[in-house]
Amino acid sequence: HCELIDIKPSAPSAPSAPSIQEAIMNIRLTSAVLLNLVALSAGAATPLVDSSGSMIHRQIPDVSTSSGIVGIITSPGTPSPTGSVAADSTDFLSWTDQNQLSCRGSNAAASSAGERLSLCTTSIVAGAIVVEGITEGDLEMGLRHSRHARTLTALFRTKQCTTTGGSTDTATGDDDDDDDTSSSDAAPQTLILGVMGDNVDEAAVEKEVLSIFEAVAVEQLKGKSSFSDSYSLVVVTLQTPEDAQSVLASATEAAKSQATEGTLSSALSAAQTKIRESGVDKEALDPPMVAQAFLTCRQAYAKQAKTARAKVAAWKARISRGLIVDGNFGEQAEALLQKAMSSFDGETLSGAGLTLVSKYRLEMRLQLQSMVEIAVEELYELQVINLEKSTLKKLSRQLLSQQSNSLEPNVDANAAAVRNAAFAFESAMETLQIPSLGLTKDKAVQEMTGMLTDALDKFPDSPEAQLKRLKGVKKETSKEKKAGSRAVELGLDLVAMIRPDGFGSLQGFAGYQIGGNSVTVGVANDADDPQVIAQMGGVRPPLVRIQPKLRVDVEL
User: Fold this and answer.
1) Residue 374: HSE in the Cβ half-sphere, 13 Å Cα cutoff
2) pTM score > 0.85 for this model?
């Protein structure tokens, strides 16, 4: 309807200022009406909820709902593949002449009354709901951690509060706690999730949606309904106009099964009554404490992870130089892990009792624990490698230092050097092992014993040993001989080894040389050592073993 306004002055004189302002206002109002009529005639969306969260009853079209209603929930800031106006406009809930309710979805910010009312209304009135704007980034982060989790929470909570037991029959006024027919007789509502991506793991998405529904269902003390009774979930790819046409066609067909006789005005009024009686619009989205609990978990994880990484980086810098961590690395690593976990538990204790947060808190805790444990295990392995290299290098130097000029190796001295190296390695491993993580010294010590034995066997053929023997030969052959001097020198070398009972905790030797004679006495309490017994062919070594050597030097 449009009327013409004839502006005439009340007197031949110039009109007063107030009459001109009133006429201008009338013209502006008339222009707004005309623009609204043009928009409606062109099929534009009609806002149904204002910014204060109230229903605009005068703008509700007089249309029938017999063919079903499709609800389209857009994502703020994400282009709408279906061309819904709610994605980029400030309208919370709009109606189009295609029997579609366009509702703006939730975001990470605090929700307003209009946003909550629109989501609750869409959940009740629409026979099929299309949630669009789900990106691959949302799926990688986890759907239950994205803004869409708040949208789904609002839909599920509205469904639970307005259709499950505990409601009052409007016809009889009787309480139907014991007979929940409202949810069991109704057909499941079709819920279509449109993902803007090609590679969609439908099973993973369905699992996350089910976890959100179960978390909401826990809030209902009685009359809980299952997900299969309430919804028929469909996950599709929605990013092109062709996808949008197919999805809207499927949603329109599904909405017909939920269609009821009546008008849009009566459906919206009935929905408002249910929402007002249940009070679900006051808590349709996550309460501030839940959002704060999620934020606390993320902040606690970031804080403890940063602290642990700093300590690990300091240790890694020292290990990269071929060293091991000063002090007892095992105790320090266990203390680091225990401190990180206890600090995280203390900072996130408030979220442990919240159903929507507890699982996320557990995941963050396991992720923090895994991060610290993996870093500690890596440092342990690197230190074992460094310790093996340094032990083998020290053994090689010791064997080389006690290498004589003769071609025959000093067997006893070399065996003692191997035992000393093995004992030093085992002592160092005791400071590195972390039993709580299954990182013990046993395997490393066993492998090191084999490497030391191999090193001893290969030492005589090593370039260092051959070079030293060659130098000794050259030194002896280069001595000047006196002409005509002939001499025969005799010498006696006595080598004694005392091996009392024990496992090699006491080792040592002493030597004395006078003239061409020498006496060497060694002590090692390793008679009970399994490795020594194995080397002796399965029998214990003798307590005292004396090996005399007669040396004859003849010069012609």
Assistant:
1) 8
2) no
